[in-house]
Design brief:
heterodimer, A: 274 residues, 12 helices, B: alpha/beta, Rossmann fold, 9 helices, 37% helix
């Protein structure tokens, strides 16, 4: 009696990552209300905060120093929120469709799946915030693109943090099922007060400043204010944010892989979504 | 004979419940083996462990000679499955769903393969419809198309004709027989449908409370239990009301 043998496939395949992105493109392409919804909230936020900024600009010497600081903060905050949400929702789509077992019985590896979720988070964040960023120009004669290259750094850092949060959220959903779904919607707001989005870290009480200093997002918003008020690009803040993001990414990936392993022990991959 | 599946002392325990309790069996190329048992007998748990979706508490599974505890990803491209416990994204058309899986399995001829399957499974007119808009029977055929997209050498089917009307169920069985004849694939089947098992299976593993309590070809089981059909054999075993006559046929050495 003989035994069949197999050749070793590639451990990481960009083709499989592309297949997962294709799956989400099909969803987005076939549903224009989803596209509108993605851009709707960031645009509404931009409009409300834009008018508020205009009012403060005319009545506040602080804001007169840099019109658009609140608008920029709002739009960059949405990068973090949309990044996290884009990552988590792309994963949730598989649970809602009861498709996770199909995917993980195919040659798709967890790391390929995570990379495809990163790409979808980037695309969803761009779909969400780009219209708001562009519309701010005719509405308020303010262009966030005037920040120049630092904007790309801020965007990248916030997206990375959003994806790290997304990995932790999806790990929780994988472990505890759809009961943990609401985490995707509110967990990032827990970090808003200590991310120093609209005010400097120095405003926070001492013990909260410690918390703020271990968040990559607080360095981004401090860096944004330094750029807008002082016209100084603070490399140190960007590097601190990138360094912390690296730690967060490793933690997020570790938690996701641990959760995946636990799901295989408990038989959750077949049950989750029901 | 070529062994596609070799399972030894496989067990899975969830807290105090022994879902699968030390089973062993083998499946050869071109063979159809059915797991038959009542609810909670361990059929789906066994298939989940073979797919690598569930980690065994103990025991080994070798697929194509590869220990899947160590090298699961080496064999996933050569197998596929279908189960009523999973679904495909409803917002995608059947073609889009099949295209995604064709790419996940790395098919170079994805379009041609989808066209072939659509024709063979009589899905031509449904291929561009949203998966969610299909009837239960159409979805089952669509799921079967997904299970066959990579021309698997090992097909794991959990209740493949559940929710199908008798005509469609018969059609699916006929198709599976043809696929196996053409490709020599091994099929492991879990089913409650005794007629289906009698028709498709070369060998039946009778499961009860996570253990293989008997096995043999459908004819062998009918002979030894002196019954007319597998349903009666199933009830004898499930209710522990009759003992089989000693085997007079050769039995597989792996089965315990």
């Amino acid at each position: 009696m003989s035994v069949e043998t197999v050749s070793t496939p590639r451990r990481f395949s960009f083709g499989r990552v592309a297949a997962m992105c294709l799956r989400h493109f099909y969803v987005l392409k076939g549903s224009w209300p989803r596209l509108v919804e993605m851009a709707y909230w960031p645009t509404m936020q931009m409009i409300i905060w834009g008018f508020f900024s205009t009012f403060l600009y005319q009545n506040s010497s602080w804001l007169a120093g840099a019109f658009g600081v609140l608008l920029s903060a709002v739009m960059l905050w949405d990068v973090l929120f949309r990044g996290q949400l884009g990552f988590s929702l792309s994963f949730l789509e598989e649970l809602w469709a009861r498709n996770l077992a199909n995917l993980y019985c195919s040659p798709l590896t967890p790391s390929e799946h995570v990379v495809s979720l990163f790409i979808m988070a980037l695309i969803r964040a761009l779909i969400g915030v780009l219209p708001a960023m562009v519309l701010a120009i005719p509405f308020y004669h303010y262009s966030i693109f005037s920040l120049g290259l630092p904007l790309a750094g801020f965007f990248f850092c916030l997206l990375l943090m959003g994806c790290s949060m997304g990995m932790i959220v999806t790990a929780m959903i994988l472990r505890f099922g759809l009961a943990a779904e609401n985490l995707a919607w509110f967990i990032v707001f827990l970090l808003a007060p200590v991310s120093a989005v609209y005010y400097p870290v120095s405003i926070l009480p001492g013990w909260l400043q410690v918390v703020a200093h271990i968040l990559p997002s607080s360095y981004v918003f401090e860096g944004m204010r330094a750029e807008m008020f002082d016209h100084v690009f603070r490399w140190d803040l960007l590097l601190a944010s990138l360094g912390l993001n690296l730690v967060y990414l490793l933690i997020g990936l570790g938690v996701y892989l641990w959760s995946f392993s636990r799901a295989r022990e408990l038989g959750l991959l077949l049950q989750v979504g029901e | 004979m070529t062994e596609i599946v070799v399972v030894e002392d496989l067990a899975k325990q969830f807290r105090d419940v022994k879902a699968v309790d030390g089973i062993g069996f083998a499946v050869q190329r071109g063979e159809t083996v059915a797991l038959l048992g009542g609810n909670g007998a361990g059929k789906t748990t066994t298939i989940s462990m073979l797919l690598g979706l569930l980690k065994p508490t103990r025991g080994t599974i070798r697929l194509f000679g590869v220990d899947i505890a160590k090298h699961r990803h080496r064999v996933l491209g050569r197998m596929n499955f279908s189960s009523p416990y999973v679904d495909l994204p409803h917002r995608l058309t059947l073609r889009q769903n099949l295209m995604v899986f064709a790419k996940l399995y790395g098919l170079a001829d994805a379009r041609a393969r989808i066209a072939t399957l659509a024709k063979a499974l009589e899905l031509d007119t449904l291929i561009d419809r949203k998966f969610g808009s299909l009837s239960a029977g159409q979805k089952t055929r669509g799921a079967l198309a997904k299970a066959l997209i990579n021309r698997p050498d090992l097909l794991l089917l959990d209740e493949p004709t559940a929710s199908l009307d008798p005509d469609t169920a018969d059609w699916v069985r006929h198709y599976l027989e043809r696929y196996q004849q053409e490709t020599g694939a091994a099929i492991l089947l879990a089913s409650h449908n005794m007629g289906e098992v009698e028709r498709l299976a070369d060998r039946v593993l009778m499961l009860r409370q996570g253990r293989i309590v008997d096995s043999g070809s459908p004819d062998d089981l009918l002979f030894r239990y002196s019954r007319q059909n597998l349903e009666e054999v199933f009830l004898d075993i499930a209710r522990d009301r009759r003992t089989a006559a000693p085997r007079n046929t050769e039995t597989a050495e792996h089965e315990r």
